[in-house]
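FW: tagging you since you asked about this chain on Friday. Here's the raw sequence from the shared folder, copied in full. Didn't touch anything.
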Amino acid sequence: MNVAAQIAIAVGSIAVLLAVMVAVRHHARKHDLSAEVQRKLVHIGTGLYALTLPWLFADRWPVFMLVALTLVVMGVLRLPAIRSGLGATLHGVERQSWGDILLALAVGTVFLLSQGESILYILPIAVLALADAAAALTGSRYGRGFFQVEEGRKSIEGSVAFFMVTLILSMVCLLLLTQVGRANVIVLSILVAAFGTLVEADSWRGFDNFFLPAGLLVFLQSHMATPMPELIALAVILLTAILGFLAIARHLGLSTHTARVYVVAIFLLLSVTTIENTVLPIMVFVAHAAARIANPGTSAHPELDIVAAVAMISFAWLALGLATGLNALAFYGLTAMGLCLGLIALALAPLSVVWRWIGGAVAAAALVWIHRLLLGTPGDGMIADLTWAGETTSLAMACAAVAIAVPLVRPALFVRIRAARLALLAMALPLGGYLWLAKENTGW
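HL: got it, structure written out here
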């Protein structure tokens, strides 16, 4: 298939998406369909179409071009002049949601991270397309029992529907697309369904459209070859962690929803990577708790925002590492370190100027030392493929200085949209350093 044909298919795919939205909008007016039903019909159609992408194009780049075009279209549909017309098929619901944008990002991310392995692409996208829609539609039509989340409530019936659909999809996909033993298929499918149900039930503002497929991919990638006893132990650990964290949540000033989100985030970190790679991300949550008490921002749900920031940073570095072929864990650690220091700086803001800077300098020195300790030696741990021991300390010190100084000098910048702004600040220097060092090592 030549380049022109692939571009034509990508552009045609956007036309198909818009045609589906027009058809759904017309059908909704004719049959008085609710905004939620309209949104989920588009969601199902988009997800099922996304399942064909690995076989629709001969190369990988048209998929990423299609994702970029979709993001542009989703942005246009959010404009006030269009939002009440065709855009109402996606934005007619009352709650604020970024689900349309995150769905497109999820398809591109899962396509990249799956690296051509069918099970890692098909199962997460199928769950997103079918199980997520089943949960929403079941809950809106048959929901009788509800539990509270930060921006409203979700139904027990919807979560049960999600679990059952995911369980069936997992068993079918694992049996047909892998060589996993049948006993392991059952346990792994139950774990996938339980983990997915937790992510879907506890997501907010449409973040499940990204966290669900991306989280399932990482979970599958890490545990498809895990022996049965370890899978059972993993299930016990997850259940124990949820029950334990819920028991102490109120003593920490956390809602039950936030407690579940923290458990899922930390469990995913611990279950898919080595312990040294989780130290700095977990320290971010501790620093956030201190900042929230000493210097709260204006976010309605700050705990959820910081979990989202850590998750998005994690997937961003994972994707960069795969895209370049060079290990990015050390730079991920630098970003987590910077985010942690930014939160510490905000926690220090109420102190006098002298004590602020003394505390900031001590925190920066300590976290640079911790990051260096976690790196190990060239060829081990986080440093892996890049042997840049000389540059490590200099870059870490620069990242720490920027991350601590900016919030100390201008704390007012981080009153609103705190987690996102701190994440961008923490990401800037590590990203620049990574790209420069990658160029030096690969020549691209």
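FW: The first helix runs from residue 3 to 31.
HL: agreed, and The chain is about 75% helix and 0% strand.
FW: great, closing this out.
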